[in-house]
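Re: weekly structure request thread

Next one in the queue (177 aa):
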Amino acid sequence: MVFDFYYRLSAPRRREYERSDSLDAPELDQGLMQPLGDRLQAALVSGDQTSVRMGAQAVADAFNTALRLPPIRVSVLRTRPQRGGSEYHGYYEGGEGGDKARITLWMFTARRRQVVAYRTFLRTLVHELCHHLDFEGFRMDESFHTEGFYKRESALFRRILGDPPRAVAARVTGKQA
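Done, posted below.
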């Protein structure tokens, strides 16, 4: 599946898009990642910004080590900025000139000033880590939001949550994933 803007891409950018769409999620050790996710969840519940940053950094460090990616710095800011009626959740900046790449996350909603739900916060972190994977692991020039990108994000997100992969869950429960 391609999104409408695909047809406006140049031939080289279309090839990059198609490559992104075709890639699967790399394996992550659930036994390593799930406890880190659990600690991040506890930090969010506490509402302590430093603990949340340390928890998010621990997830990112384990992710990068497992996938042999360069380190990345995670920043956690307080209240999400708004633009045009929507809120920012996270932001990825690639490293340049020897600087580490950076992920910025926000831990409080803009409107209600409540701590972001754990699954939302974790999915945002994994989303930004997938951009890092695209650039540093898959050596892409661009990190498109393809269907393949979202499949990788979902698979890695489930590994950190401790959920079984979709195909296994479907066989075990008899339900279609």
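The chain is about 50% helix and 15% strand. Residues 168-177 have pLDDT under 50 and may be disordered.
Next request, please.
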